[in-house]
Write a structure and sequence with these properties.
With 504 residues, the protein is an all-beta fold. The chain is built from no helices and 47 strands. A hairpin with a 4-residue loop joins strand 16 (187-188) and strand 17.
Amino acid sequence: MKLKSIIYTLTGLAMTAAVSGCEGEKDLIIIDGNLPIKTTTLYMVGDATPNGWSIDAPTPFEASEGDPLVFEWEGNLNAGEMKLCLTPGSWDAPFIRPVNNGDEIGKSAITDAEFAMHAGDPDNKWRVTDAGVYHLTFNLREWTMSTSYLREPDAPEIEPIETETLYLVGDASPLNEWNIDNPTPVEKKSQYEFVYEGKLYAGELKACLTTGDWGASFIRPATADVKINENGIEDNSFVFTTGPDNKWKVETPGIYRLTFNLKDWTIAVEYTGAFKPASKLYMIGEATHGGWRWDAATEIVADADNDNLFVWEGELARGTFKAAREKNFDAPFYRPASSGVTVSKSGASANTMVYTTGPDDQWEVTEAGNYRLTLDTEAMTFEAVYLGGDEKAKPLYMIGSATAGDWRLDDATELAAVSDKEGVYTWTGTLKQGEFKCCFEKDFVAPFYRPSAENCTVSKSGVSATDMIYRAGDPDYKWNVVDEGTYEVTLDTKAMTISVTYID
């Protein structure tokens, strides 16, 4: 936010007789620099700060007595990130940030370093490298900041935590996921004692008092990766803080008893037995209910008597799918051993599969319906059995600046399936000047139907090229409407063609 102050000066100098008639001339003087940031409040937010990433309750500075635009703060900073704001409540407002992302605040003093101020990207933040007690000074008149490291972190004040609820969250939790909206409840036994008895997976874990807020304070170890295993817990003390984001690390899956003492800030861990977590596969693709979203992937649990056998029954739409052991697009996938393998009422056209990162071959469902799929990860075979069911075509949507809903997925325009023509969809309505593409899943990371090359236009003459592709990512080709009007748009997803007729 570079500003220029403009100053007009009146020249009142005595002139010689030759220029005596030039009275009252004005000179325009432009001074480069930042105008003072006028505010009565200043806050910092981030996992390095006492109140964490809570934009509604950020950590306040105090204006100095000598200059109301010089703000100071002293206290504990965690290792982590931080930036500053003028008022609470909005991530869209301008923030005070370092000139370079990741500029360090540590034990070495900083004196009168320049800062920047802007909203949006680049989302530069300071990185606190050493936890400890700091004195911070921000001069909003000069746009500079200074820091000094005073001492090691103060020990947290242990005050009884008053709560009616406590939850476990993490991939080590019984739910085996980082879902803050649905964490695992811990049973309250007395005013300050909470107990959990049950299975834990190998992974990470922390505890929270409420659901739905990653910016809240969490019960966590004081240092990262405190071990939990068959021998109990490495360190039974905990802290209650927004950061740093330390978590317990469960090394041995099993049945555990966790006892939280919220008065003394301690946790007791007892290993009570072993269990073998069931293996899982995650099926993903436009043929599945969840499309290409990992958070809605179809979960398949291994057979109780055979850890290599996965059987699933359910509805598949027309489209493609593959399966993975972890929710990661960069991980290997179970996929057909060759391209062009189809799933239909006749079953799978080929039964061998591979476990690779590429090429990105996928099973293609050509006839929608209910199926039983069997994946044997030891024999590396795949079977599909058609079970019948409703073959209603999966909805197809049109989105873009040329449509009434613009780029809002929730307002996407739905094309109607042609009942007697498999894979054909049509729509009639008004298109504005602008762009559009089509998708089965309301998800920008999913594949889209799009022109096969750039600069494909839609006009009163129709569409400049009829062939199309079905692909996610770049290049992000779209049809470009050059003439506003009423059109009939028809996509044939089997023939991979589009036709456009101008009506009015």
